[in-house]
Design a protein that fits this description.
Blueprint lengths: L4 H4 L4 E5 L4 H11 L3 E4 L6 H17 L3 E5 L2 H6 L4 E4 L6 H7 L5 E6 L2 H10 L3 E4 L15 H11 L4 E4 L7 H5 L5 E4 L7 H13 L3
Parallel strand pairs: 1-2, 1-8, 2-3, 3-4, 4-5, 5-6, 6-7, 7-8
Amino acid sequence: MQSDRGDQFGVWGSYAITSGDAVAVFQNACKGGARILQYRDKTVTRREMLHTARKLRSIAKSHNALFIVNDYIDIALLAGADGVHLGQDDIPIQDARRLSHDGFIIGISTHSIDQAKTAEADGADYISIGPVFSTPTKPDYAPVGIGVVRAVADVVRIPFVAIGGINVANACQLKDIGVTNTAMVRDFATDTEERVRQVNHLLLGRE
């Protein structure tokens, strides 16, 4: 059964994903008005990740922001996160749902229209679609382009987040086709507070 929180909080604007100092990114993203944040770290041990995730839970909660953990549902649940963001090679959505509690958000990365439609049918609360533009964060994936993002918007009814190579300068191209949620990693790594504020203002008119 899908969580209703994806619908309740489905318009986020800036979706901040960590790189580098995760605590600093969370703190500054929240100051800038981020309402959903993801902890992603491919460099530390699972023990270290859990330790950091518990700190991030406190920061997100104090700002009434949603806290998502990338890949690891065990860490998400142990840290008291609001949800998990799965990759195509992670555990299936249905299995993640069996492990989790009511209200737990399950998102998944998709890279095509077919994957987006399958994720919705499988019970995802939201999806990301991308990479929209070329990005070193996803070197093994060719950019899907704005056309695929537009097509996904036409066929998927759950919230979706455009991701991959997006920055303050090119986010306006997504705004022009009606995208309200964009995730960024590198562009939010520095000057996080101001860049989150700029994207929220661009996409949502939110100061």
